[in-house]
């Protein structure tokens, strides 16, 4: 079995946040897209609804072998390895990301917020760090990037909380949050969120807003103007989605932005970012 046989069909335009948008310079988009294709394949493996856990780990192992340049490695990993060598990029980010997908196979529950952030350290933060390295940005930008990427991950988890549980028996809402609000994991199977589950979601949105506050000045610290504009857009979309999660039920209502809403928010954020730089 090849990794391509497990593909979900999802592409970079289907993600909740921009991935290698046209804002980025062509020479930067190429390595970012190579990383995305690698991540997309690994995600499809770990999220496959019928593939046995043992086989998922075998397939993810082939991806790690590809990063190491071994002949049995997957094509996507070997391709990324070549790109990283050409651009002199640290492979640690790709290895860390694979660790998150392996964890998705073996860990389906989190005890507390710190545990969830530990997962984000593998699943989200390496993505931002890789993109910054592609652009040659100062690594002093990493803490703000880490905060933003972790926020994006939690937002995605909250939007998909019912789907993740129903299809993969995976719950990212920490046990401590269920206990604090009186919610139960079984609430995720309902057509509508119970008041307790809504309270749990809103509680996590509050913590996510702290991450977004931490990363509010991130775009202004980025030297590359185009990347700064894209980061400003992503941050604006994330803040908007937090507001939606506080007022909408992800079990019964649409939380994702419509295309025109994304375009409206993105335009405002990009223009604001570029204007501040010109001032």
From TrEMBL:
<dbReference type="InterPro" id="IPR002060">
    <property type="entry name" value="Squ/phyt_synthse"/>
</dbReference>
<keyword id="KW-0808">Transferase</keyword>
<dbReference type="GO" id="GO:0046905">
    <property type="term" value="F:15-cis-phytoene synthase activity"/>
</dbReference>
<dbReference type="InterPro" id="IPR017827">
    <property type="entry name" value="HSQ_synthase_HpnC"/>
</dbReference>
<dbReference type="Pfam" id="PF00494">
    <property type="entry name" value="SQS_PSY"/>
</dbReference>
<dbReference type="InterPro" id="IPR008949">
    <property type="entry name" value="Isoprenoid_synthase_dom_sf"/>
</dbReference>
<dbReference type="GO" id="GO:0004311">
    <property type="term" value="F:geranylgeranyl diphosphate synthase activity"/>
</dbReference>
<protein>
    <submittedName>
        <fullName>Phytoene synthase</fullName>
        <ecNumber>2.5.1.32</ecNumber>
    </submittedName>
</protein>
């Amino acid at each position: 079995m090849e990794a391509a046989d497990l593909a979900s069909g999802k592409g970079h335009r289907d993600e909740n946040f921009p991935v290698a948008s046209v804002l980025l310079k062509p020479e930067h988009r190429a390595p970012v897209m190579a990383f995305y294709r690698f991540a997309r394949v690994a995600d499809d493996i770990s999220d496959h609804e019928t593939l046995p856990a043992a086989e998922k780990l075998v397939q993810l192992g082939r991806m790690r072998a590809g990063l190491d340049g071994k002949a049995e490695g997957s094509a996507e990993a070997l391709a990324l390895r070549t790109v990283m060598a050409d651009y002199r990029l640290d492979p640690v980010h790709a290895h860390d990301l694979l660790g998150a997908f392996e964890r998705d196979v073996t860990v389906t529950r989190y005890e507390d917020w710190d545990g969830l952030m530990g997962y984000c350290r593998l699943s989200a933060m390496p993505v931002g760090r890789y993109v910054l390295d592609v652009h040659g940005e100062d690594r002093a930008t990493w803490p703000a990037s880490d905060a933003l990427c972790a926020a994006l991950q939690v937002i995605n988890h909250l939007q998909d909380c019912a789907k993740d549980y129903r299809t993969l028996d995976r719950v990212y809402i920490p046990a401590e949050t269920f206990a604090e609000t009186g919610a139960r994991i079984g609430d995720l199977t309902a057509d509508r969120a119970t008041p307790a589950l809504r309270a749990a979601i809103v509680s996590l949105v509050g913590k996510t807003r702290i991450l977004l506050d931490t990363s509010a000045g991130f775009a202004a610290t980025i030297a590359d103007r185009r990347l700064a504009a894209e980061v400003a857009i992503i941050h604006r979309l994330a803040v908007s989605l937090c507001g939606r999660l506080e007022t909408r039920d992800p079990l019964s209502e649409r939380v994702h932005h419509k295309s025109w809403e994304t375009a409206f928010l993105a335009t405002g954020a990009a223009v604001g970012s570029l204007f501040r730089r010109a001032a």
